User: Fold this.
Amino acid sequence: MAAELRGALIGCGFFAVNQMHAWRDIAGAAIVAICDRDPERLKIVGDQFGIARRYADAAALFAGEKLDFVDIATTAPSHRSLVEMAARHRVPAICQKPFAPTLADAKAMVKACTDAGVPLMVHENFRWQSPIQAVRAVLDSGDIGRPFFGRISFRSAYDVFSGQPYLATGKRFIIEDLGIHSLDIARFLLGDVSAITTRTARINPDIVGEDVATMLIDHKNGTISVVDCSYATKLATEPFPETLVEIDGSDGTIRLEQGYRLTVTSKSGTRISDVSPPLLSWASRPWHNIQESVVAIQKHWVDCLVNGTEPATSGADNLKTLALVEAAYSGAASREPVQLDALL
Ligand code: NAD
Ligand code: 89V
Assistant:
């Protein structure tokens, strides 16, 4: 049997705990060392997951460990320096989203890893959620024919700021943090994008960035989609963190509705199924949807490393999602449509 891949986690914060749980569930890889510049977080995660090899500094981690990969779960400002450090040490890297604060940084990170010949995957996990995979499977089956319209929608009033306080203080909020997932899902389901038109608003007076965004997207294949997201939408039943999907095709429709209800109408009639994600042993509602996708994307990474294949959300792929984020902000400011090819 092949030896287990030796990984290290950099950044032991709020979300990294999910990544650590997922690593424990995945055969073929194990986290052997962790790093965080905050001693308290290092201790909490090290003690919870029984990791004795702990580093306060990433340079010391790379110097002290022989690694097959690193899992970078810090926030965006440190991503470029940590990915470039991994590339210098010829260590394959997973990097959390948002991949980088700017597209220029992200391009440099992709180049550093390409030049070093090391794989790079962005932890863009929303497309790995089982309800989203179920929608993609219907599209691939051809049952609804050629899609001509899509809507990817995430509307909520969930208090994300209690777990992630930094989300309240940045100049950019919902597009960079959450819309980035919705935009990636739009690409995943409906194909790459030629142009985007965006409007934003800030409804919550206690935060700095925008908490509502509406985006109209021209896909290169002629499909049109609307990607809309809001953290200012108070509903009778809070849907966090469900992404709802509507797709109209030449032969039928797909609706992924709140409560993980999937309705597919095609030439052969209408079928309704429950595509609720499983509740993993360590997961907690309502996060279980995201938590399951963390296992899926990390398994995919191990498969890619073992088989020498490119991850679906490789650094190069994610440039196209990050370009959409950049284009959305510049288009919201100018109130003009933004062409994507000019950015890539
Ligand atoms: P956090 O602030 O709770 O944790 C980040 C940790 O990284 C902190 O403990 C900090 O001390 C450490 N850190 C920062 N820079 C470091 C460096 N240079 N070296 C060592 N340690 C360093 O943040 P979080 O909420 O866990 O978010 C982390 C990332 O995960 C963000 O980019 C966020 O957008 C992303 N995230 C993704 C999802 C998802 O579903 N994909 C969900 C939540 C958060
Ligand atoms: O998935 C994320 O990136 C999270 C949340 C779902 C809270 O927006 O930050």
